[in-house]
Amino acid sequence: MTVKVEGQKPFAGFNWKKLAIIGGIVVFALIILFNSFTVVQPGHTGVVVTMGSVNEGVLQEGIHAKIPFVQSVVPIDNRIQKLEVNTEAFSKDLQSVKTVLAINYRVDTAKSYSIYKNIGADYENVLVVPAVNEVLKAITAQYTAEQSVTNRVLISDGLVEGLNSKLNDQGLYVTDVNIIDFDFSDAFITAIEEKQVAQQQLLKAETEKDTAITNAQAAAEAEKIKAAGTAEANKLLNDSLTDKVIENKKIEKWNGQLPKVTGGSGTIIDIGDVTSEGKSQ
User: What are phi and psi of 153, to 5 degrees?
Assistant: First the structure.
């Protein structure tokens, strides 16, 4: 049997204030716990900042303890990063050359804290981009505009070497530079096209000239060979013409008629008739 007391509320004797205090302590403890650890993702290092001061050394990949509310960890990406730069420079022959570059670089893990301390998180725009512009201008000035197109590999290698000489001490390493595009003024492109057409026409004329000379030489050589053959044939024929052969040829060619002889008085004597009369007597 339940006895109901008039005017008594449920949980009237429960200490809500104490419960609120306990709940606040639990929440605060959880906050403290979560802020006591940090996770550094793969391919990154963690720069520890204690009350605004950058600590030397870095945290490697994995989970690490830190002082809550006193220390913070700034992640630095140490993987190879790609940067595309559009820049303009003047060539050796004072042509304007617009260049699009793709630069692959990375941050040295051991110097991540130094880069963050001295430069900040925006090291790409503060260090890398200005260095690319400076080195490219210096290298472009060594070549004419036309040579820039034919020496892309040399220019790329020069950029890698020049950028590393400027950035390595800061903890940045350039691994590769690709020249995506060269762009020149319309007047220069027109001049190059006209030059190429002229070179093609000159090459065609030289080819035709060489062909004509070759044909003439071949014809002369053929005539020389023919003449030599004819001379050799005549020599062989002359060597073969003995007296007997000549007499035999005469007999083969004789038509059976004796020649007519003109006398001193203008009379013509037919030897054939004379011989006929002699026979009949």
Answer: -65, -45
Q: What's the one-letter identity of residue 93?
A: D
Backbone angles phi, psi at 86, to 5 degrees: -105, 120
Contact present, 47 and 58 (Cβ < 8 Å): yes
Kindly report, residue by residue over 5-31, the tens digit of the pLDDT: 555 555 555 677 777 888 888 887 778
C-alpha separations of 230 from 218, 223, 226, 240, 249 in Å: 18, 10, 6, 15, 22
What single-letter amino acid sits at 52? G
- Residue pLDDT, tens place only, 133-164: 999 999 999 999 888 888 999 999 999 999 99
Please give the sequence-ordered ranges of beta strands (E in DSSP) within 148-199, or none if there are none: 172-183
Amino acid at 252: E
- Name the residue type at position 271: I
Q: Return d(Cα 162, Cα 150) in angstroms, integer.
A: 20
Q: By three-state DSSP, how is residue 162 classified? A: helix
How far is Cα of residue 125 from the mean position of the Cα atoms in its chain?
A: 28
Contacts of 36 (CB under 8 A, 6+ apart): 65, 66, 67, 68
Q: Any alpha helices (H) in 12-111, and if so which ranges?
A: 16-34
How far is residue 275 from each of residues 22, 257, 261, 263, measured CA to CA in Å?
172, 11, 13, 17
Q: What is the pTM of this model?
A: 0.59
Apex 70 CA angle, 65 and 111, nearest 5: 65
Are 167 and 158 in contact by the 8 Å Cβ rule? The answer is no
